[in-house]
Amino acid sequence: MTSSTTPEIIYPESDGLPLADNTIQFRFITTIVGGIAGMYKDNPNVFVAGDLFWYPKYRQPWVKQAPDVMVVFGRPQGDRRSYKQWEEDNIPPQVVFEIASPSNSITELEVTKLEFYSEYGAQEYYVYDPDKGRLKGWLRRGEVLTPIEVMEGWISPQLGIRFEKEGKELQIYRPDGERFATYLEILEQKEQERQNAERERQNAERERQNAEQERQNAEQERQNAEREANARQQAEQERNLIAQQQQEAIPRLLNMGLTTKQVADALSLPLAVVEKIGNRE
To answer: At what angle do helices 23-39 and 183-255 cross, to 10 degrees?
Structure first.
């Protein structure tokens, strides 16, 4: 009786090369990965990765590529050491990106990798060279990826993102018009939003304080008006009391033998008033 064992197939998780050759390439890779992942953060069935080996064939570890960016619709988010297609319902990445560095040749990007992505099911393939400002794309038509004639203003059928260039610089815009931003730009934007929110809070607090001051001023004016009204009423009452006392004093003074002229002088009243009251008496 003999036994046989199937040798384990090793699918390398790294080629020993860095993610990027320079900071420019790294910035674009991370910006695109982050931008697309952000678009689908609430969709659990879109997998986005950068610099991850894609193995399309079972037991053929030499058949592989590591796109700078890959997007797979229909597969769950989560960490992977590599993308083994036969373990992923045999769904290939639909959209792949390559960001060129000085070590990449046109043959590598536009022949070798293009043929691989075309053969193994990618629907869209984009290549951007930051040094030359060159942007190219291919779209699947039938069995092969064919060139996209005009890339500036192009909208990805799968992602809905729009490609533009400012000079040589690639700009990518989400379907809602928001531009893909670097991590530093996102931090700056959040800080700006925080400062704006703080200014709005301070403005609201000043408005609240101003409204409170206006309320206090209005209350003070009401109290002042009330005091003035009370003072006028009291003065009127005092004048009426004095007038009543003067009128009551006129008959007594006349009965004491004073003339109307003397009474008028004594009470500081017009003579006609004294005579009128005296005549009544």
So the answer is: 60
Instruction: Kindly report the pTM of this predicted structure.
Output: 0.72
* Residues sharing a CB contact under 8 Å with residue 99, sequence separation 6 or more, in sequence order: 20, 25, 28, 29, 32, 68, 69, 128, 129, 130
**Helix (H), strand (E) counts: the chain:** 6, 10
Interval 42-88: pLDDT, tens: 999 999 999 999 999 999 999 999 999 999 999 999 999 999 999 99
Question: For the domain bounded by 23-181, which CATH number is listed?
Answer: 3.90.1570.20
Query: Cβ(97)–Cβ(47) under 8 Å?
Result: no
Adjacent-strand bridge partners of 172: 163
Q: Would you say 93 and 54 are in contact if contact means Cβ atoms under 8 Å apart?
A: yes
List the domain boundaries for the chain.
Answer: 23-181, 189-280
